[in-house]
Amino acid sequence: PKLVYDFAEGNKTMKELLGGKGANLAEMTNLGLPVPPGFTISTEACKAYLSTGSVPAELADEIDHHVDVLQQKMGKKLGQADDPLLVSVRSGAAVSMPGMMETVLNVGLNDDSVNGLAHQSGNPRFAWDAYRRLIQMFGKTVLGMEGDVFEDAIEAAKQAKGTSNDLDLDADDLKTLVQTFKQAVHDHTGREFPQDPRTQMDLAIEAVFGSWNSERAILYRRQERIATDLGTAVNICSMVFGNLGMDSGTGVCFTRDPSTGQPGVYGDYLQNAQGEDVVAGIRNTVPLADLEQIDKTSYDELMAIMATLEGHYRDLCDIEFTVERGKLWMLQTRVGKRTAAAAFRIATSLIDEGVIDTDEALKRVKGAQLAQLMFPRFDADAEKELITKAIGASPGAASGKVVFTSAAAVEAADKGEKVILVRRETNPDDLHGMIAAQGILTSRGGKTSHAAVVARGMGKTCVCGAEELEVNVAEGTIKVNGTVLDADATISIDGTTGEVFVGEVPVVASPVVQYFEGSLDADSGDELVASVHRLITHADEVRRLGVRTNADTADDAARARRFGAEGIGLCRTEHMFLGERREAVERLILANDDAECEAALAELEPLQRGDFLELLGAMDGQPVTIRLIDPPLHEFLPSMEDLAVKVALAQERGQDPGRDATLLAAVQRLHEQNPMLGLRGVRLGLVIPGLFAMQVRAIASAAVELKSQGKDPRPEIMIPLVGAIQELHLARDEVTKVLAEVGVEWSIPIGTMIELPRAAVIADQIAEAADFFSFGTNDLTQTTWGFSRDDVEGSFFSRYLEKGIFAVSPFESIDVEGVGALVRTGVDRGRATKPDLKLGICGEHGGDPDSVHFFHDVGLDYVSCSPFRVPIARLEAGRAAL
Ligand code: PEP
Ligand code: MG
Question: For residue 794, what pLDDT band results from cuts at 50, 70 and 90?
Fold first, then answer.
């Protein structure tokens, strides 16, 4: 097979074979743009090298041939003594791996040709500097020498000269430096620096091949989930020099502003410099517009080329170019990276310009970008004092006074104060405090900890797992890295980056959220908002997946509805058991006999009914999936440690611990080593008589009442944590009985969650007793991997991510191979029994972009996610359908 391609032989579709850089150089060459001639050695050659450990035998001949062609084109020979052809040897993989692999410039220089270059250029300093750079890059890249060896020698030369500026080293100084470098090569490798240009080239090619498997490249690929066997291409390109004088230079430009998406020309230029000087920031660049004054011919040509490239790639291009003595050369182009705002604006601008259609525009924006546009942010220009950095668990930017308890948060909020609730971790009882606070900061737990999940649900900023924080609630202080903050201190937390700052950092509100909230019109003149509106509207037109929300309160439900939710996919009723209702729950748990138990339930029922009236009212005409109580009952009791201390103290003082002693006994009785695997979900409903019945009566009577008012309530009743068909039959019988008792005259769907591997596997049986399934991928992930969802993220997950065991937490993005396979099994088996079985997902994955695509592919009917992720799910569901 052919291993080497002239630039004229390739095109932009050949990335896999020629790498991104090679494919685009070929494309530009064939567009007739001024690309320095050259050729690309394919990734196939690299793969052969990687599998055998040596360069394929036929490669040398092919390279010979292409070098010949290149020499003819250029009218000079590689390394020719009086006028050398010089080349760059650059890596270029199919997937961009910035800075991971190697480059060697000025190949072809040696002790003879350096004089030829000096003569031809009329600039000996330039020639010796080029030779110095070759030996330095070759030493590091090909010979594996430490960069310091060279840097130190340059430093010494400058010191000897009494200067700190590289530019003060003249031709003679650089000539001496070349001798020093050559000696260093000999000292470190026992070999002379190779004088034969072709040997230099071959060794450089091999080094680029080998750099595919450098430690940092391997790590980068693991983290970015890039396949390990792609290999890199190698581009051999004739050198052009931007450092031949003031009529030369180098630059980078974009065909639109990559930060805002505004049309126009953006870039930087540096006279008398090579690309690496720009990167190193040795001198300040000037705006590209200045090139018009410096060299109008090159500027005009560049403008024309930029227009050509944008028209051709139908997208924002980023370009590297060099001017060599007034002649413009294109060194690289690619479809450029851009900010979230720019992505939306460019996509819709391109529709208006007639370049792409709306489908294509929708494909070019991502849910993650939309999410970024929805975060309130800290003002980037504000001064900040960072004290620690932890897990950014729920995006946003929040500032406020430190409070340590939910009660303090509520009290402060009532006074109109902004607070940050700082806890070791939060529990369901902190809900009021979390609602009252601007943001939540915890020292334990990860992205699926209670604090994180609830905060995301509320769209509230949260940073968790800040282990450097020593939260001392008793003293009312936080210690962090030597700083001590008390309860009155103000802090600011960034839920995107996980950063924590002292003091108040000002924030800027997101217009995109205002648009979704309905307080800013799509045609208000904000172009970004207009772009978002157009693309999400199109997503709604094309998507097949429905989008529902996870919401437990009428407020959340109403917001989600404004954000475009088409129903509630999960109402977690346990959140309705908190606050002042706790006492009734305690009485239920402490009940000594059936009568006490019934009394406690009777107390709870009207309260639950009130909740459902509000919720079903807010979602009138839309389905509301209400899940019967799931968590273990002890979660509604005070902590065992706290109670034990209280009781012991009372006893020590000779007082009667009273109710606390009863509570403690109950907590001890209910205590489980692994409550997540214990008495919860359907098990609870089957063991505590009347519990499910009470909830169902509340749902049914609320619905009946709303109906009688002419409303259209659409509750759906969902049984959690089912693993056996018998469980579902028993629960379903009870539900059906209560519905009949209440006198519901229409059919309320009764379904189940699929959140245990066993349920997925026997989904064909379960479908017999279920009107719908909703995949609970949080528990399904927990039970499939055997990872505790409340612990892992704060403990060993960071190591797992570092080691590349997964690129993203499986609690965040669905593990397609494992958990996903169980979802697929559940879908297939469920539908085998009941072809029209309604299928949804209500785990955290419902709002994760990649997961949404998977759920579309697997054939679910809807995803359900927290209100703030509803727009993201809508957008991604649209993209998945294209
Ligand atoms: C789930 O397990 O995915 C689910 C939605 O239920 P919860 O998070 O309440 O356990
Ligand atoms: Mg669950």
Answer: low
Tell me, yes or no, whether 370 lies in a domain: no
Number of domains, the chain = 4
For residue 295, what is the domain's CATH number? Answer: 3.30.470.20
pLDDT computed for residue 447 by the predictor = 63
Given pLDDT bands bounded at 50, 70 and 90, which one contains residue 778?
Answer: very high
Q: What is the pLDDT of residues 49-70, one digit of tens each?
A: 999 999 999 999 999 999 999 9
Q: What is the pLDDT of residues 327-358, one digit of tens each?
A: 999 999 999 888 788 999 999 999 999 999 99
Atom of ligand 1 nearest to the CA of 720: 6
Q: Which long-range contacts (CB under 8 A, 24 or more apart) does 126-131 make?
A: 126/241, 126/243, 126/244, 127/171, 128/171, 128/174, 128/175, 128/177, 128/178, 129/174, 129/243, 130/86, 130/105, 130/106, 130/241, 131/106, 131/174, 131/178
Specify the pLDDT at position 743: 94
Based on the fold, state whether residues 469 and 503 are members of the same structural domain.
yes
Q: In the block, which residue shows the tokens 């430690």?
A: 215
696 in any annotated domain: yes
Residue 316 and residue 428 share a domain: no
| Cα end-to-end span (Å), the chain | 36
The full length of the chain comes to 882
Give the ligand 1 atom nearest the CA of 630.
9
- Do 612 and 565 lie in one domain? The reply is yes
Contact 143, 130 (CB under 8 A): no
Q: What is the pLDDT of residues 94-147, one digit of tens each?
A: 987 766 678 899 999 999 999 999 999 999 999 999 999 999 999 999 999 988
In a domain, residue 21? The reply is no
Same domain? 552 vs 443: no
At CA 278, angle to CA 172 and CA 269, rounded to 5? Answer: 110
Cβ-in-10-Å burial (0-12, 13-18, 19+) of 628 comes to buried
Q: Whole-angstrom Cα distance, residue 11 to residue 313?
A: 12
In a domain, 676, yes or no: yes
| pLDDT the model gives residue 281 | 47
Task: Enter the DSSP assignment of 11.
Answer: -
User: Is the same domain home to 867 and 848?
Assistant: yes
The reply to whether 234 and 253 lie within a common domain is: no
Q: Enumerate the active-site residues.
A: 450, 842
Counting from 1 in the atom list of ligand 1, the atom nearest the Cα of 843 is: 3
- Say yes or no: CB of residue 776 within 6 Å of ligand 1: yes
Q: Measured from the CB, is residue 630 less than 6 Å from ligand 1?
A: yes
Nearest-angstrom CA–CA distance, 286 and 278:
11
* Alpha helix (H) residue ranges in 379-490: 406-414, 431-436, 450-458
Whether 685 and 774 map to the same domain: the answer is yes
What span, in angstroms and rounded, lies between the C-alpha atoms of 728 and 765? 10
Write the CA distances from 377 to 396, 402, 717, integer angstroms: 6, 20, 39
Instruction: Tell me if 843 CB under 6 Å of ligand 1.
Output: yes
Digit-coded pLDDT (tens) for 203-225: 999 999 999 988 778 877 776 67
pLDDT band of 599, cuts 50, 70, 90: very high
Domain boundary, last residue among 201, 216, 238: 238
| Conformational region of residue 355, where left means phi above 0, alpha means psi within -120 to 50, and beta covers everything else | alpha
Residue found by looking up tokens 């041939």 in the block: 65
What does the DSSP 8-state code read for residue 6? E
Neighbouring CB atoms inside 10 A of 483's CB total: 12
Shared domain for 320 and 295, answered yes or no, is yes
Domain span holding position 459: 376-509
Tokens 């953006």 belong to 266
Residue range 371-379: mean pLDDT, rounded: 85
Mean pLDDT of the chain: 92
Residue nearest to atom 6 of ligand 1 (CA): 776
Return the higher-pLDDT residue of 458 and 480. Answer: 480
Q: Whose CA is nearest to atom 8 of ligand 1?
A: 778
Higher pLDDT, 663 or 6: 6
